Amino acid sequence: MFYEPEKRDRALLPYDPFKAIVAPRPIGWITSMSAKGEINLAPYSFFNGINSRPNLVMFGSEGFKDSVAFIAETREFVCNLATWDLRDKMNETAAPLPRGVNEMERAGLTTAPSRIVKPPRVAESPCALECKLINIVPMQTYDGKPVDCHVAFGQVVGVHIDDRFIVDGLVDTAAMRPIARCGYHQYAVVDRLFELVRPET
């Protein structure tokens, strides 16, 4: 099968398979704070790390949502790790709520103070990355047409890890059981790892 994204046969593919192909995608469970001190927590599946020295992350927002608006105001955010144990609470924070409603409180999550940035982190999450905003980039198509998508780039300035998941100096990713977004309403959970060593030549 071959199709052009805007011309697919909807009788064969009633739902766009793009997210099922670009999968699994890590979930950036983003805490942000407005200039007024309002707290927002929302999951973003267009999220990833993009550099290791320094640690850089990005997430894409389809629409200029509260997370992006708050980060634009205060230039700080936190990426919390979404895990199997927290899947239902993470999903609750995806609800489209009015600006100013605290999703952490609504989902029954505990706030924990960050060390360097002002937005709090999710206390129940085994890992959190405190970030300073580098830039928010409005996207466009290859021919210059604006797209209502905004990509926030951040630099990690602080890292929280639950000591239970550090084994012999390494983070035990599988033990934390992070979840990732796939297509449609589907998710994946990381609970098993395998190792490949990159060739030297």
Automatic annotation (TrEMBL):
GO terms, molecular function: FMN binding; oxidoreductase activity, acting on the CH-NH group of donors, NAD or NADP as acceptor
Domain Flavin reductase like stretches: 20-167
Entry coiled-coil feature ranges: none
SMART domains per the UniProt record, alphabetical: Flavin_Reduct
Domain of life per record: Bacteria
Signal peptide coordinates: none
Classification via Pfam families: Flavin_Reduct
Protein name from the UniProt record: Flavin reductase family protein
